[in-house]
Amino acid sequence: MSLARTTAQQLFPRVAQTRLRLESWRLRVNQRVIGTRLRSLASSLQALEVAERRLPHTRRALRDTRPTLETASYGSIALTLLALWLGVRLIKFSAEVVHDLASALGIESISRAATHFLWVLRPEAANQPSQGWDALIVMITMLAALFPPLWWLIKRRPARGAVLRHRATIQAVETLNLCAKAYRQQPGQRAAQLRELDLGLRATEGAILRAYRHTGTMPRRSARRPAARTHASQVAGALRAESLRMDVQPEMALPRLGAMLAEIGERCAEGRIGSMLPAESLVNIEPVSAARTTVRESIHVAVALIAAMASAVAASAALPKLGVNDDLRPALILGCAVLAAILVGGWHRVGRLLELVPGR
């Protein structure tokens, strides 16, 4: 007993000291991350000479969405890992179900395809890597099983859902920083900054149009949704109308655009998604159609995917004729598909898709 008491007396001070060090380290990390974001916001507001610089709700949103271990969603990570494990386990079971259904319905082509797929997944094939089309099919199947849980974790659960709730505010602040970055440049020397700002404004429009869904304050069948949706389309229209003045009077348009972004971000962080801008700012404004924007973006992504698949088919037909080794074909086919998607859809769209690929 005396030995145990002596050991405990020696360990307790060390445990307490370790705990204090971890707490101090946690505070330093939080202060560094939060301080960097708040200083960037303050610098942008000062550069654009925005009248209202306090923005308490925006600053709170930036604190709540800080990317640190303290805000990591550990429960969601565990749930995602479980979903990934189940998805991989269910691939073979799903193939067996498809085989049995196809055999019962007399669809020989699907039955043969399922049989071949099960043959590729046989246990003894672990030491014999698949090649050619078999490798590509297995890769696509694995991605289809892994994509949904990873998408949910990356897009919906950062900072325990706070990033999704404050997406409009975060995007408005990021675009505000781009606006200040362009304004700091001399006239005639801000081409790259204006291009980045245009892409940021497009992303901000999308976040504004979906703010009523992301905040989580309205049920799907809420009577408040139509009014919030209509107001969001007007706010996006006002933002777009102001952005058009950048090519006419950039020295006046950029500060006004920054003030609008600051006000939109603050009101969204406050929860006022039905009043993101004052009513007088929305007079004679042409609303932006959320459906039209969604359809146009969906068409762009679909065309990029079609180009990727066509490139993959063409590469798979051409590589054997060029004498390329079987082991290199899957990687080259994937590279050709990604290159075609970038050329057709643009890097910003392909980049968002590649963020969800496992292993990145």
The counted number of beta strands is 0
What is the CA–CA distance across the termini?
53 Å
The percent range for helix content is over 70%
The tally of helices reads 14
Q: Which consecutive residue ranges, at least 5 long each, have pLDDT under 50?
A: none
β-strand percent reads under 5%
**How would you name the oligomeric state of the polypeptide chains in this document?**
single chain
Strand count, sense and barrel status of the largest sheet are: none
Q: Give the CA-based shape.
A: globular
Gyration radius from CA atoms, angstroms: 26 Å
Structural class: mainly alpha
Taken in chain order, the helices and strands follow as: HHHHHHHHHHHHHH
> What would the average pLDDT be, to the nearest integer?
82
Describe the structure.
This protein is mainly alpha-helical. The chain has 14 helices and no strands. Helix 8 packs antiparallel against helix 10 and helix 12 runs antiparallel to helix 13. The mean pLDDT is 82.
Task: Write the topology of this structure.
Elements lengths: L1 H46 L8 H9 L9 H32 L2 H13 L11 H25 L5 H4 L1 H18 L6 H19 L1 H4 L10 H19 L6 H21 L19 H32 L7 H17 L1 H8 L6
Helix pairs in contact: 1-7, 2-11, 3-4, 3-5, 7-8, 7-11, 8-10, 12-13, 13-14
In short:
The protein has 360 residues and is an all-alpha fold. It contains 14 helices and no strands.
Fill in the keyword field for this structure.
360 residues; mainly alpha; 74% helix; 0% strand
